[in-house]
Write a structure and sequence with these properties.
272 residues; alpha/beta; Rossmann fold; 8 helices; 7 strands; 44% helix; binds NADP nicotinamide-adenine-dinucleotide phosphate
């Protein structure tokens, strides 16, 4: 029996990807993975300088292009689509990664938090997928579908175990991302586009800097593997989902959290 050619099975050579929030954190980890697997990657973020700088840094790994835009607004998304269409005729991989959080106590948790968090984490994710679907369809075939990856969170699978302040808008937005992923997977399957979600546990990023500083030992204690995630573990799941190896995976929500979301022996931080 012939061995599988693993390099080919997990290769992204010839693929064009767009990663929102690619300038740092989880988006940068995924971009690094895609470039290492041979894809050309466009990254977007609001801060032009940081986006340009990351693209420049990652150019040592392959073709990485900065397209700064605010995807939290319809104008920003339109601008991004136009910028992208000036450069490419089709798209193979869209990673809806840009996201935001808002922590505040229950009694003072503002309506504005829901507007801000749901707008970026859910509405923009849906709008990006809808608006780029024609380009994704052009890059797709039944044998090799185009891929959408939505970045959810383990906090959309369970109620946060290390939570000293409420993140009500965030947890509900991430549960929405997971369910929307299933809905979009059905919607887009006939156009040869798969849609999956990754639900990360704790990974080092600007979003988690503060909580790591204050509660890293609780985070590690709550994780069955007793540690936080590494860049290669986020890159790995994204490369799998976008390669030939992941072509038949559709509508899945994949936790990458060391088992934290299924751990019921957790230490619950006291809430305000
Ligand atoms: N890190 C974790 O442990 C963890 C765990 C579970 C889930 N996640 C999820 O993973 C995703 C990335 O989080 P992260 O931890 O890497 O956060 P991060 O370090 O704060 O990075 C967020 C990225 O999104 C960009 N962004 C924010 N608002 C944007 C907008 N309106 N338009 C375009 N880009 C925007 C940011 O750049 P600009 O500020 O320049 O726009 C940045 O590149 C989020 O969806 C988050 O919920 C993270």
């Amino acid at each position: 029996m012939a061995a599988f050619q693993l390099e080919e099975l997990f290769s992204l050579k010839g693929k064009v990807a767009l990663v929102t929030g690619g300038s740092r954190g989880i988006g940068k980890m995924i971009t690094q993975g895609f470039l290492s697997a041979g894809a050309s990657v466009y990254i977007t973020a609001r801060k032009k300088e940081a986006c340009d700088q990351t693209a420049e840094e990652l150019k040592t790994l392959g073709v990485c292009i900065s397209l700064p835009a605010d995807i939290g607004t319809a104008e920003g998304r339109k601008d991004l689509l136009n910028q992208f269409m000036d450069k490419e005729d089709n798209l193979h991989i869209l990673v809806n990664n840009a996201g935001t959080n808002w922590g505040e106590s229950f009694a003072s948790y503002p309506d504005e938090a829901f507007q801000k968090v749901l707008n970026l984490n859910v509405t923009s994710l849906f709008a990006m997928t809808r608006d780029f679907s024609a380009l994704l369809e052009k890059g797709a075939s039944q044998d090799d579908p185009s891929r959408v990856i939505n970045i959810g969170s383990m906090d959309g699978l369970h109620i946060p175990t290390v939570s000293h302040t409420g993140t009500f808008a965030y947890t509900s937005s991430k549960a929405a991302v997971h369910h929307l992923t299933r809905d979009l997977a059905i919607q887009l399957a006939s156009r040869h586009i798969t849609v999956n979600a990754v639900a990360p546990g704790f990974f080092p990023s600007k979003m988690t800097d503060y909580v790591f500083e204050k509660h890293k030992s609780d985070i590690e204690a709550n994780c069955p593997l007793k540690r936080v995630g590494k860049a290669e573990e986020m890159a790995g799941v994204a490369v799998y989902l976008c390669s030939r190896a992941g072509a038949y995976t559709n509508g899945a929500v994949i936790p990458v959290d060391g088992g934290t979301s299924i751990n019921h022996q957790h230490v619950q931080g006291s809430r305000e």
